[in-house]
Amino acid sequence: MAERVVVAPDKFKGSLSATDVTARVAAGLALGGFGGEVVPVPVADGGDGTVDAAVSAGYQRVDIEVRGPVGAPVTASFALLGGTAVIEAAQACGLTLLPPGELAPLTATSRGVGELILAAERMGARRIVLGVGGVATTDGGAGLVQALGAELADDSGRELPPGGAALGRLASLGLSRLDDLPEVEFWLASDVDNPLLGAAGAAAVYGPQKGASDEDVRVLEAGLARWADLAEAAVASRPGGAGADAGARAGSGSGSGFGRPSPHRVAEQPGAGAAGGLGVAALLFLGARMRPGIELLLELASFDERLDGARLVITGEGSLDAQTLHGKAPVGVALAAAAHAPPVPVVAVAGRCTLSPDELSAAGISAVYAVAEIEPDQDLRMANAGPLVERLAARIAADWLG
Predict the structure, then answer these.
(1) Among 164, 343, 363, 368, which residue is least crowded by beta carbons within 10 Å?
(2) Cα gap 261→269, rounded to integer Å
């Protein structure tokens, strides 16, 4: 039987997609003399590249036109297989969809994400995995809920404009026309554990990354607080929405539907602040359950089965650093490989690595091959990432597969 190597990297942000990294590693292994089977499993952790990873695992790509982060139509993709859909929020409201140099921290909307959800449900999806990350929005998922039929109005009864800043003027939230998708189970694929509000919340932590000034952060925080208050009150006032029974059903996995808040404020729950607060909308209005994105994506890709008979797993991402240790793709891959029977050793390729040998060992990664070791110039690393990764993979073949 031919030897098998599983190649399961995340993207090198700004230079190579996960699929590109996978192909370059495979080419480098061949250059290094490895003649066995290479099993490509490009991965993602719920952010950019999540749909591509699902398509690589055998899902069908579906392209539709939705409202983008600043209102202009964009073509967005989701992945569909059987009754399961994988939706990537960044496809509809990602930072990369904004015009160059034009951030929109106060006005960007998540409405297109709701439109993707409706399209997936109409195509037969009964399980929807919602990947979050890389979004331009801080609207608490209000746009998503509007796409599902909610009516947000100011104190004059006028429809509220899009974006997080406008939420400070929210006076009423009508849910009578809301499509509650009762037959759909939702999973929130995220490694973010931020609450919605406060110093660790969506506006304070992630707003500046989306172009928000200090004053913008204060405006967004006030809007999100207003949104949380009215949204939870509106959900609790629906039939079955108040009391301990509703709280007991929250996140029970018995389908979606509204009126399922926790007895404690949903805004305070870990993950409510994910994707500019889109997490709170998923938890409150969709009854979503949270799992680390990489766990969900590996499950969808039948990763454990692909490890059968493998001699080595090669994972990686652009920067192996402290954030990697908090649920990022390479650690998720390493944990899965360690849990396999028998365990499979894991090495990583990366643009750079700032983790110590002890940290890598604790994460289940036996060795790292970093582009920075062979090309110290960052600009040249970015420009030549593909050939450099091939060189590293040839070294892996010599060191681990000779």
Answers:
(1) 343
(2) 11
Closest CA to 395 of 15, 28, 16, 4: 28
| Single-letter residue type at 133 | G
Cis amide prior to 342 (ω within 30 degrees): yes
Q: Do 74 and 89 form a contact (C-beta atoms < 8 A)?
A: no
CA distances from 199 to 194, 195, 218, 221, 384 (A): 10, 9, 11, 10, 39
Tell me the one-letter amino acid at 85: A
Task: Write down the pTM of the prediction.
Answer: 0.88
Distance between CA atoms of residues 22 and 103, nearest Å = 32
Q: What is the DSSP letter of 207?
A: T
Which regions in the chain score pLDDT beneath 50?
242-263
pLDDT in tens, 54-63: 999 999 999 9
Query: For residues 110 and 143, is the Cβ–Cβ distance under 8 A?
Result: yes
Rounded to whole angstroms, the Cα distance separating 385 from 247 reads 49
**79 and 103 in contact (C-beta within 8 Å)?**
no
Strands 289-291 and 151-153: unpaired
Instruction: Say how far apart CA 248 and CA 254 lie, in whole Å.
Output: 11
- Helical segments of 184-327, H only: 214-237, 243-249, 274-285, 293-300, 303-306
**Residue 37, helix vs strand vs coil:** strand
Report how far residue 163's alpha carbon sits from residue 165's, in angstroms, rounded to the nearest whole number.
Answer: 6
